[in-house]
Each structure stands twice: as C-alpha cells, then as structure tokens.
Amino acid sequence: MWTLSGFIDEISPDFETQCSVAAGLGLKYVEIRSAWGVNILDLDDDQLATVQEILDRHGLKVSSIGSPIGKIDIGEEFEPHLERARHAADVARTLGAPYIRLFSFFIRSGDDPKDHRDEVLRRMRALAHVGEAAGVVLVHENEKDIYGDTPERCLDIIESVGSPNLRVTWDPANFVQVGVRPFTEGYASLRPHLEYMQIKDARRADGTVTVAGDGDGQLVETIRALREDGFDGFFSLEPHLGDVHALGGFSGPELFTRAHTAFTELLKSEGIEYA
Prior knowledge:
Elements: E1 3-6, H1 15-24, E2 29-32, E3 34-35, E4 38-39, H2 45-57, E5 61-66, H3 79-95, E6 99-102, H4 117-134, E7 137-141, H5 151-161, E8 166-170, H6 172-177, H7 182-190, E9 194-199, E10 201-202, E11 209-210, H8 219-228, E12 234-237, E13 244-245, E14 248-249, H9 252-269
C-alpha cells in the first residue's frame, strides 16, 4: 500500500487551514515547506511547537521537510548554507520527518554544468555527511536549472557521493520542463536510488504544469513499473497549479483537491491501494 503526502503550503499560508484540508482529504502524512508564509527553516522554537500541536490535533505526521537547501547559485558562499542544512536536520528530528528534500545548486545561464561538477560534488558530499550524522535521508530533487536537472547528472551526484543518506526524489514535471521523457530516459538508471516521489505533471510543448496524467510526465508508465518492482514509499502531491516561484508554488484548496483527485483516480484505475 502506497502512502500519500503533499506540500500542504500549496493549500493556504495558514498552517491550521493546511492541515484541516489535508486531513479532510484523508492524508495521514504531509510535507512541510512553509507555515504562515514563513519557510520551515525560519520558524522559531515556539512556532515549531505550534506546528507539532496542530499536526497532532489533525492526526498528521511529517513525511519530509521541503527545504530550500541547495537552491542557491553555485557561486554563493557555501558555509552558511551548510549550517542551514544542519538546522534543517534539527527541524526534521523535531518533527519526526525521515526525509529532507534538497537540491544541487543553480548553474548560471550560459555556463556548462560540467565546469561546476567538482564544486557541486564537494558540496553534496558535505550535505550527505549532515544527513548521516543526523540519521535522516536527504532526497535530491531534479529541479530545473540546477546541476542535477537531468537523469544523467542526478545519477552522477548519487553515485559519486555514494552515501546511503543521499537518495533520489523523482519529479516528472521538472524532467519534462528540461526536455526529458521521464520514464523512457530516466527510470531504469535512477530506480535503484529512488526513495521518494513528487506528484506533478507537465506538458512538453510549453512546460505548463498539469494534474497527474494530463501531461507528458509518463505517470502511468512510472507507477506501473514502481508497482511491479515493489516500491514502497511516499507520493507527495506538489500541484503547482496556481502561482509558481523560485522557492515553491501555490494552488489553493480547490486546485489542491483537484490534484489529489486526479492522482488517486489514476491509482484506482491501476488497482493500486494507497493510504
């Protein structure tokens, strides 16, 4: 049985509303990126305590911290960011989250990513050590315009770092938006390292984000293959059906519900049980 989650700040800035809608949809887990319009890593101890209280009241647990770690330019200073990653690990432990999402640094337009490979890998190794020390798994997202935005470079990161605490989170829409056919061109190579799924889809023609199954993200092929090879992990809704910006997106309650319905109907049509 697969486990659903979701970036619930796409529902509302208000954390109570986020949790109320999520629980109403039957979610048992959520992914936290921000609350009350504040990034999860910038909440103080009292706010984190309130987050936990609201989660408990709605019967929700945290699947992952949707952090912005690695979502800076490769030319920016790394040490302050590494300290922020250590804080992300503390937040994950506070909220009982087994995973932290992260990225592999923006590459400036016109630069060849290969020219930055050594520095990217140095930083990713340092981040993996943070995960190892904290006992949390870092899942790398294939965000467009970062070093690891193609299957080949995602694989390069994971294999070169070689840490059990650095794994792959798969975002089919992001692959589509960089010209990749996700399942055809990435599944076989990345499946051994795949730990977490983010659910949004996109159209190849113009990059428009859609609900699961309405784009070119090859969601049907992917979930069939995952079922066949026994994947047992989280599927986190990240609809991006409204506003989209550098650090995330927003959908609102109605569009988030629409995204949830589209994906769960897809699972039902394939005879896949979920919770």
